[in-house]
């Protein structure tokens, strides 16, 4: 899938003659800079706001949060029950919530049912528990094919499912964000909750991988 | 040297943002949602859906930028 437009201009700031010539900005960089100038002028971007938002999403908010939710559900049957009954409230018990996590529904995999999440219209995703979505989740092929031919696409992504396993595809929306509760791997009896959390991958909580 | 040695944040092997402008425009949308839309994300989401539908093959963060431009155009001064 596409690798995105990584900035390639770093390190070209200085040119001969000693004068400082900043690297030329790409068109989209110019548009973003213009937006930032306009919004700052209107007082909508307080000092330090951008840096704090970016820091949180780069350092604090990510799939390690969802992994804690999953590990708790694996080790505490009462918590699992609450999680499946009211995802938002049970996830908030562990301190996770807020933007894009207001209406969480947790769907549990079983030996007979495999769940997978998608957003067909844009990129809705449970930020508090998974962070920002990976590039492929936002790409048109995933958004279209996961609905049309989930079994084939899952197999291409390395998640081959037996024919008798039912696949349920959940289309995220403004109203609902889904999180997949993967099955606890066999042979992990006696493993601590913290160690279990270390086994849970982002992809297993999207539903494109099994553990 | 491996990128992860530099302590860059990664999620299952992927950087959260691929370039600084992507993180800036992400944060700018958060600023508009919080300070101009009363925390309601829906107006931005509607613009993002429109922007993606208008040019399905466009890189995601460029559609995000177009969506924010459209939302800002419609904001009361």
Question: What features would you describe in this structure?
Answer:
The complex is a heterodimer of chains A (211) and B (77). With 211 residues, chain A is mainly alpha-helical. Chain A folds into two domains: 27-58; 62-206, Nitrile Hydratase, Chain A, CATH 3.90.330.10. In chain A, 43% of the residues lie in helices and 10% in strands. Chain A is built from eleven helices and four strands; from the N terminus they run αααααββααααββαα. A two-stranded parallel sheet of chain A has the order 1-4. In chain A, α4 packs across α5 (87-93). The longest helix of chain A is centred in the N-terminal third of the chain and has 15 residues, at 27-41. Mean pLDDT of chain B is 83; it is low at 1-11. Chain B has helices at residues 20-36, 42-54, 60-74; strands at 10-11, 14-15. Chain B is globular, with a radius of gyration of 15 Å. The longest helix of chain B has 17 residues, at 20-36. In chain B, strands 1-2 form a two-stranded antiparallel ribbon. With 77 residues, chain B is mainly α. Chain B has three helices and two strands; from the N terminus they run ββααα. In chain B, α1 packs parallel to α3 and α2 crosses α3 (60-74). The A-B interface holds A 2-7, 26, 28-29, 31-33, 35-36, 38-39, 43-46, 49-51, 53-54, 57-59, 62-63, 99-100, 121-124, 131-132, 134-135, 138-140, 174, 201-203 and B 9, 11-12, 14, 16-28, 30-32, 35-36, 41-42, 45, 48-49, 52-53, 56-57, 59-62, 65, 68-69, 72.
């Amino acid at each position: 899938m596409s690798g995105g437009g990584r900035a390639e201009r770093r390190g070209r700031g200085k040119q001969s003659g000693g004068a400082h010539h900043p690297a030329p900005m790409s068109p989209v960089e110019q548009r973003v800079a213009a937006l930032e100038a306009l919004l700052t002028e209107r007082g909508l971007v307080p000092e330090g706001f951008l840096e704090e938002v970016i820091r949180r999403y780069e350092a604090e908010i990510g799939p390690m949060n969802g992994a804690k939710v999953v590990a708790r559900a694996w080790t505490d049957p009462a918590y699992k029950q609450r999680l499946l009954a009211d995802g938002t409230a049970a996830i908030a018990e562990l301190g996770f919530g807020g933007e894009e996590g207001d209406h969480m529904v947790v769907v549990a995999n079983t030996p007979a049912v495999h769940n997978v999440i998608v957003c067909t219209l844009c990129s809705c995703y449970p930020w508090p528990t998974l962070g920002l979505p990976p590039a492929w989740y936002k790409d048109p092929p995933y958004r279209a094919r996961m609905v049309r031919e989930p079994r084939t696409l899952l197999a291409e992504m390395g998640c081959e499912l037996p024919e008798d396993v039912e696949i349920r595809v959940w289309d995220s929306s403004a109203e609902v964000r889904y999180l997949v509760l993967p099955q606890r791997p066999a042979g992990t009896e006696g493993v601590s909750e913290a160690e279990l959390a270390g086994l849970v991958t982002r992809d297993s909580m999207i539903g494109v991988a099994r553990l | 040297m491996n990128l992860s040695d530099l302590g860059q944040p990664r999620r299952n092997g992927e950087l959260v943002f691929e370039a600084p402008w992507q993180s800036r425009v992400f944060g700018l949308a958060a600023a508009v949602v919080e300070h101009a839309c009363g925390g309601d994300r829906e107006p931005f989401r509607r613009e993002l859906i429109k922007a993606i539908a208008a040019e399905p093959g466009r890189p995601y963060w460029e559609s995000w930028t177009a969506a924010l431009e459209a939302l800002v155009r419609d904001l009361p001064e």
